[in-house]
## 1
Amino acid sequence: MSLRNRELLTLLAVAVLTGLGFASVYIARQAEISAGSLTYAVFFLAVYAVAHLAARFATPNADPYLVPIAGLLTAAGVTEIYRLNPQDALRQSIWIVIAAALFSITLWAFRKDYRTLERYKYLLGLGSIVLLLLPALPVIGTTINGARLWVRVGPLQFQPGEIAKLMLIVFLAAYLREKREVLAKGRLKDFGPLLMIWGVAMLTLLATNDLGSALLYFGIFLAMLYAATGRSLFVALGLLLFAAGGYGAHHYVGHVRERITIWLHPWTTQPVPCAFNGQLALRQDCASYQLVKSLYSISHGGIGGTGLGKGTFTNASGGELIPFLKTDFIYSALAQELGLIGVAGVVLVYMLFTLRGFRVAHVAQDGFSKLLATGLTFGFALQTFIILGGVLRIIPLTGITLPFISYGGSSVVANFVLVAGLLLVSHQANSRS
Amino acid sequence: MNTSITRVAIFALLLLTAVVAATTYWQTWAVGGLNERQDNAIQRVAQLTVKRGRILAADGTLMATNVEKKVGDQTLYLRTYPTGRLLSNVVGYSTQAHSRTGLERSENDYLTAANSGINTLVDRLSGATVTGNDLHLTVQPNAEYLAEQALAGKCGSAVALDPRTGKVLVMATSPGYNPNQVEKDYAVIARTKAACEPPAPLLNRGTSGLFTPGSTFKVITMAAALDSGAYGPESHFTDPGYCIEYGKKVSNFSDQNGPEKFGLVTLTDALVHSINAVFCEIGKTLGPKTILSYAKRFGFYSTPPLETPVSERAPSGLYNGSKLFQPKDASEVDPGRMAFGQERMLVTPLQMAMVMGAVANGGIVMKPYVVDHVTAPDGTLVAATRREELGPAIKPETAGLLSDMLEQVVTRGTGGNAAISGVRVAGKTGTAETGTPGVNTTWFVAFAPVDNPRIAIAVVLENQRGTGGATAAPIARTIMQALLHSTANS
């Protein structure tokens, strides 16, 4: 069977799953929602068809499982968002259409050779920094939940950081491909440009108050540096640098210190000063409210979950019990309704995507392609870990999105472009062999 | 480059494996602990879909039940308390906004049928309403009502047990609160005014109120004195009106005529007239270790068992500030003052009722309990509490001697206000100084009838101008009369 037919078959299976998901939400919540919800299943079928056709024309030899996996995760996200608030699901669907369009455009534009990007590496590097700086600007920059990550132009609101991440990966892949031999020698002067760009990026991130992205970008950087040079010493040094930076941030940045305190001691038995209202309160009723409520949501799911559409997210008068549920804490909603069996399955799907991504890096022929696929895939996996690790109290919680599942336009668009990148590399590699 | 890419891939997969491991932890091991958390609103709201079990008094009076509320396509069961304030500090409350307390908290598993068998599981999976189990309490609501009435306007508590079984018959506290106000009118409860500071209307003073025992502690000193064989009821003392400790005079209780002075007395007289100087001498002779070891046999220094949450029960003993204090060396304690219940001794009314219960029950302390039995919605028995001995505190002969002496406290001593015609009552008064002249913590502890004890009781009042005999004894008498009446047939 050809690769694309295999993709089509897998997509059909995903479409059936999507339909089942919406049907079960509909059955559980008949009193509140209409049968029109089932049209979402049809909508996804159409989006999957477009993505599949784009891949069929532009990258016929690409990996057949990446698109279905992305489709499955996206559908899981919209199903849960729909169950929480149908209005939000509609908005998210519009973003998915835009994402599918950009996915197709990316495939089409670079179908001949994406490696022309290498020539514009410094432009991309600079561009990513400009994008990262955008939210720090007055007027258009917007602060949400303590982090300055959004840009608002008219009715549109997006996180330029998501696109900046992709540009940075392309830049690093190109730069490291060119310099990997000299870098491997470990001479200090060769690190100059890299360290400078990274210094600027880290400062930008501290200025925007967003720890999660700082960790994400630095992690991608270290992973790609290691992949390019094979020198674990660089990773050790990098981690030391990051630890020192983190220690400094812990001392001098209140936002960072608070995140770490919440992580270490989410519950207190004595009232502590509460920053929100200046009064004394138990930490679980103030600073760590979100984290603790999300843990309650996860644990309430238990092994089997409450069932899709049957979770408890509001109190008897309809008030919200968990803040930021559809964005940062979508995993806690899924964990409650699907239980351990369900969300372990979801994480397995993330693992599957990661495996396929690294397979693409393995079979790619040239250094740039290998590094590009490695960066894209590792970025995907690390981002998943940072948000889920934060929600699950493995690491301090930072507000970044869960790829494909979280509510948020920029995230879903960037992640579909990421899939397009992996398809392009994969197609190129498979066409040669 | 492939080797290093493989290593990066393995690292990435390890990160995601950690996510699965952490999820497993939170959804299995951690569940019990998180469900116990008071701020776990999700679990509380989710349990609103369970038709919570009812709570009934000993005579079947309904104390807690549900009202149905339709929200969307769900039926929620919200709690209501038909008897309002009655026994609210024991029953507790179950709300969304202020979590749970009392039996509503500690017996949540029974009330939500969380620990029931396969039928409930089938209900849960099929989406049918789960109905919880009913709690049947040991408390006599009529006597409880009279006790709460008698305490109204004062700060204090009354606890009555059945000395033969350990059943809690009355557990009243004042000020109290109306559990129906907790969800929406919490501010009303927070503004409660009372004759003490802080008013603490949510505190169950019966089990976690710590009070200076005053002369009621002499029951324990006397038990130690008799049981150790060092003294007998007829042992003689000469009371000069004071006792000398560390070179200083410790005087007897004083009225308008100054400190009382009794001269040549027997040990029985010392108890009947509550002569501090005599107990001070006994305390110095026995030493603090002996007295404390007897106190421990009665249950001091351990949190008294009961079905209410452990955080709502406090152990009795010597306290250093807010910490229970175990003297390592005899020199750390003033034995004379401890012997008549001052020093840093603090006790709960439940503990004092257990002491009197043990004296009434031939020296054996019974484990107190308030949940008599639990029934399923169809009426079948789910669980029944069995009477259980906590162990002997004193010999049966000591208990007999002490009973006679305590009876004389009521017939010819400080406890005359507790006398009930036709019933033999044994008791002991207590009037503990608070540091403010003329303001006392007053007590009366008792059991009755002496020949066939059915009730052991402790009554405490805060900030009283009179003595224990004048203030607390009449309340104890009222409650005992009501209980003798309502338990006459049991």
## 2
Amino acid sequence: MSDGSDPHGTLAEHLFRHHAARLTAHLTRRLGPARLELVEDAVQEALLRALRVWPFEGTPERPEAWLHRVAWNAARDALRTERTAAEHASGVARIGAEPADEFEADEVRDETLAMAFVCCHPELTPTSRVALSLKSLCGFSTREIAAALLMREATVGQRLTRAKETLRTRAVDFGIPTQDRLPERLDNLLDVVYLLFNEGYSAHGGDALVRHELCAEALRLCALLVADGAPTAKPEAFALASLCHLQAARLPARLDAEGRPVPLAEQDRARWDRAAIARGFWLFARSLHGGREHALHLEAAIASEHAKAIDYAATDWAAILRLYDRLTAVRDTPPVRLNRAVAVAKVHGAAAGLDELAALADEARLAGDHLFDATRGRLLWSLGRADEAAEAFGAAAQKARTTPERALLAEWSERARQGVEPPAW
Amino acid sequence: MNTYLLLLRDRLDANAPSPAEISPEDMQQIIDAYHSWSANLAKQDLLLDGKKLTDGEGRVLTSGPGGIDVKDGPFTETKEVVGGFYLIRAESFEHAVKLCEDHPHHQFGSIEIRGIDSLGDQPE
């Protein structure tokens, strides 16, 4: 690894975070998911040793091997203590021989993927899967998870404890699921990665709308899922990777100088990340090789349509509407129908869009989502119904959960009330 | 140029951050901060050495009427313990102090600067 060549140099970005995850996966393979707690303690101990020693001695030439050895020793000591306490040696895991210093790339990949399947195991609740993935797969601390998911630290801690308890009592296996179970298990995994990305792309609360590090982690996991030869490199995984890249491409244009969201219509497309778009297109093409049509294919196709358009006016809304029609057939959720209503409005006019919205009003209200009122406001505004638009934006502002969104919606409400011409949408 | 010994003491009081709560990301930032300090000195050719002392292990020898008494230490009843040291070169104590002012260790403990008595090295 090149990250250790200069003993006083800056460490590779997120080196510790990702080594922690890497070591956790390796030791969990050797000791089994039932001992995840012991594994985490051993990894933490290794990192703490590094924290004590490296400042003086510099970074070792191969930091990963160094951490690996120390974590392995710590785990072995903890196991010995456990064995002594249990007295009966039978049934106690053996750690085996000291690990080699070199790591095969394929082995690293498959261990991490197997760990991902542990973290997203169907025995765990969906929220636990997300928290455990951030902890064990991404190397986040409890505090960082709490900040990322906008939860209380104590709640995250309880959830992690319970998740590890479940892994233990249900004797969850470490490994890639067999072919017959893979599609279903992969779906669970893709759900978590998608959720991490979305939470990063559009936080559900707090002061910042975008949490770049969650997006970056989701993209990292996507790359792992579709790596050459990975058992998870299935069409739906490519579709998710494509979708995340195409969305991430817009991040540089997604916020204004004050951190407020910039609507798609007003984004400066010159600031879109062309490399991410190219990668997204390539991944999308790969996602079409065989397999069933997954909802993720349709979502990626919609994102492709937006990425293809040279400017907002060039957007092929008729194609997007057709894709939404197919998407609602397989994933009929309020957010999908809300986005479909926007496409309807673009193709058939704002009034038709409003009719669509009216049809899903009850569900959307139940979901308590500000996007419903915000979208309604924009359609009303474009129809010249400024007072109603102002009211809708006001309602949306009250429901919006991030500070930047609240500010933008309040401003729109004010502008509509003052009779300002609506911006392009 | 003179040689100075920097003794880095770690605070052991209750206010010290609990190791279990430091995230990998935080640890990396701390290490990077130490490294950028030592890289800066190394660049000016002022860093001679740096070593970490083992944690939680040491012996203190004292002589008494019964001979030499060996105790585990020096950890009992101390609020700070030396965790590591550097040997650096500096023009003067003022210069050495200046070099240590922005050391990231200040958030974890204190730094004691001692001059190495170089009288024995003086040319004839």
